[in-house]
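[stage:ingest] chain + small molecule (heme C)
[stage:ingest] validated
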Amino acid sequence: MLRWLFLSLVLFVSPVAAQEERSLGNASDASGCMNCHDQPAVTSVLHTAHMVKADARTGVVDQGCQNCHGDSRDHVARLRGREARPPPSVVFAGPRASPVEKRNETCAGCHEGGTATHWQGSLHQTSNVACTNCHKSHPVQDPVLVKTAQAPICFSCHADKRAAALKPSHHPVTEGRMTCADCHNPHGSLTQTMLRGATVNDTCLTCHDEKRGPFLWEHAPVQEQCTICHTPHGTVQPALLKQRPPFLCQNCHDSSTHNSQPFSGASLPGGALPSKQMVLRACLNCHSAVHGSNHPSGARFSR
Ligand code: HEC
Ligand code: HEC
Ligand code: HEC
Ligand code: HEC
Ligand code: HEC
Ligand code: HEC
Ligand code: HEC
Ligand code: HEC
Ligand code: HEC
Ligand code: HEC
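[stage:predict] done
[stage:export] C-alpha cells:
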C-alpha cells in the first residue's frame, strides 16, 4: 500500500518537478513562465500591447508577466514542503481569483487618466465590478473592444438591455453598427448613467445633429430632453418612442385645444368616425416637424 502511494506520487509530481528546475529564479522572465504555461490561450498575451518590450510603460523588460500577475517568485519556485503551489500574487480569473479591489488596483495602476479618469467613484467601481469582468487580457484582440462582441459582455449583467435590444425599434447595437460605449463611458463619467456627453441631449446630438437647433420655432420638450419621448434601448413603438401618438402628445397637450375629443375604437378606421388625429401618423399628420421648425409659418410645427 505504502509503495503504491509512493509510486503514484512520483508519477504525478515528477513532470512538474522537472519543469521547475528549468525555470527556477526566472519569475521576471516571461519565457520562464512559458516552461509550464505554453498553452496557446496563455501565450497569445505575447502578441498584445502589454508585452511590447520596446514600450517601457509595460514594464515587461524588468518584470515579465509579473507586470500584471505581481510577485510570482514563490509560484515559480514552489517552496519545499508546501503541498500546493502558491498562486502568483494577482490572479484575475477562476475560483482562486484575487479580490476585485486587488485586481483593479493592478490595472488602474497603469491606466488612471484618459477615459478611466472617472473610474474611482463610478457606479461600476462602487458596485465591485472588476476591469476583468469586461476586459480579457490574453486574447490578441480584447473582445470588449470589438464592436460586434461588446454588447453580449454588457448583457451578461444587464439582461434587461438584451430584452430591449430585441424589440422591433432599437439602436443597431446587436447588429454591430454601434456599441453601448458610443453612448456610455463604462469607466464612469460625470453624468448620471455614465453617459459620454455632458447631458442626455449632448450625447444624442453627437449623432443626430439635425435635431440640435436652434430653431425658429422650438418644441420645449425636445430642448429639455430627448428621453421625454424616446427610450434609447428599444421599444415596440416606431422610432424608439415611449408611446404612440396621439397618446404620447396628449401627456402634455390636453383637451383645452382643438383635439379635445376622446379617442377610442370608434376613432380608428372601421369605427363610426375615423379620426385624422388617430389614423396613420395621428397628430404628426399635420404637426410633422415635431422636433422644431425653421419655416416662417412653422409655429405649430406643421412644416
Ligand atoms: C514550474 C511550473 C510553473 C511555472 C514556471 C509557472 N507556473 Fe503558473 N502555474 C503552474 C501550475 C502547475 C499551475 C496550476 C496550479 C493549480 O491548479 O493548482 C499554475 C497556475 C497559474 C495561474 C493560475 C492561478 C490560479 O490559482 O488559478 C497563473 C495566473 C499563473 N500560473 C501564472 C504564472 C506566471 C505569471 C508565471 C511566471 C512568472 C508562472 N505562472 C510560472 C506552474 C507553473
Ligand atoms: C504595467 C502597466 C500596465 C498594467 C499593469 C496594465 N496595463 Fe493595460 N496597457 C498598458 C500599456 C502600456 C498599454 C498600451 C497603451 C497604448 O498603446 O497606448 C496598455 C493597453 C491596454 C488596453 C488597450 C489594448 C488595445 O489593444 O488597444 C486595454 C484594454 C488595457 N490595457 C487594459 C488593461 C487591463 C484590464 C489591465 C489589468 C488586467 C491592464 N491593462 C494592466 C499598460 C498596463
Ligand atoms: C463595464 C465594462 C468595463 C469595465 C468594468 C472596464 N472597462 Fe475598460 N473598456 C470598456 C469598453 C467597452 C471599452 C471600449 C471603449 C470605447 O469603445 O470607446 C474600454 C476601453 C478601455 C481601454 C482602451 C483605451 C481607452 O481608454 O478607451 C483601456 C486601457 C481600459 N478600458 C482599461 C480599463 C481599466 C484599467 C479598467 C478597470 C479600472 C476598466 N477598463 C474597466 C469596458 C470596461
Ligand atoms: C495585462 C495584464 C496581464 C499580463 C501582461 C499577463 N496576464 Fe495572465 N492573466 C491576465 C488576466 C486578466 C487573466 C484572466 C484571463 C484573461 O483575461 O484572459 C489572466 C490569466 C492567466 C492565467 C490563467 C489562465 C486560465 O485559463 O486560467 C495564466 C496561467 C496566466 N494568466 C499566465 C500569464 C503569463 C505566463 C503571462 C506572461 C507571458 C501573463 N499571464 C501575462 C492578465 C495578464
Ligand atoms: C443611443 C444611446 C445609448 C445606447 C446605444 C445605450 N444606452 Fe444605455 N442609456 C442611455 C441613456 C440616455 C440612458 C438614461 C436613460 C434615461 O434617463 O431614461 C441610459 C441608461 C442606461 C442604464 C441605466 C438605467 C436603466 O435604464 O437601467 C443602463 C444599465 C444602460 N443604459 C446600459 C446600456 C447597455 C448595456 C447598452 C448596450 C447594450 C446601452 N445602455 C446602450 C443611452 C444609451
Ligand atoms: C459584471 C457585471 C457587469 C458588467 C459586465 C457590466 N455592468 Fe454595467 N453595471 C453593473 C452594476 C452592478 C451596476 C450598478 C447599478 C445596477 O445594479 O444596475 C452597473 C451600472 C451600469 C450603468 C449605470 C446605471 C445607472 O443606473 O446609472 C450603466 C450605464 C452600465 N452599467 C453600462 C454598462 C455597459 C455599457 C457595459 C458593457 C460595456 C456594462 N455595464 C457591463 C454590472 C455590470
Ligand atoms: C453613436 C451615434 C448615435 C448616438 C449617440 C445616438 N444615436 Fe440614435 N441612431 C443612431 C443610428 C446609427 C440609428 C439608426 C439609423 C438607421 O437605422 O438608419 C439611430 C436611430 C435613432 C432613432 C430612430 C429609430 C427608428 O427605429 O427609426 C431615434 C428615435 C434615435 N436614434 C434617437 C436617439 C436618442 C434619443 C439618442 C440619445 C439618447 C440617440 N439616438 C443617440 C446613432 C446614434
Ligand atoms: C415631443 C416628443 C419628442 C421629443 C422630445 C423628441 N422626439 Fe424625436 N421623434 C418624435 C416623434 C413623434 C418621432 C416620429 C417622427 C415621425 O414618425 O416622423 C421622432 C423621431 C425621431 C427620429 C427618427 C426620425 C427622424 O426624424 O429622424 C430621431 C433620430 C429622433 N426623433 C431624435 C430625437 C432627438 C435626438 C431628440 C432630442 C434632441 C428627440 N428626438 C426628441 C418625438 C420626439
Ligand atoms: C412633455 C410634454 C410635451 C409632449 C409629450 C409634447 N409636447 Fe408639444 N409642447 C409642449 C410644450 C411645453 C409646448 C410649448 C407650449 C407653449 O409655448 O405654450 C409645446 C408646443 C407644441 C405645439 C405648438 C403649440 C403652440 O401653442 O405654439 C404643438 C403644435 C405641439 N406642441 C405638438 C405636439 C405634438 C404633435 C406632440 C406629440 C408628438 C407633442 N407636442 C408632445 C409640451 C409637450
Ligand atoms: C388635421 C390636422 C391636425 C391634426 C391631425 C392635429 N392638429 Fe393640432 N393643430 C392643427 C392646426 C391647423 C392648428 C393651428 C390652429 C390655430 O392656429 O388655431 C393646430 C394647433 C395645435 C396646437 C396649438 C394650440 C391650439 O389649439 O392652437 C397644439 C398644442 C396642437 N395642435 C396639438 C395637437 C395634438 C396633440 C394633436 C394630436 C392629438 C394634433 N394637434 C392633431 C392641425 C392638426
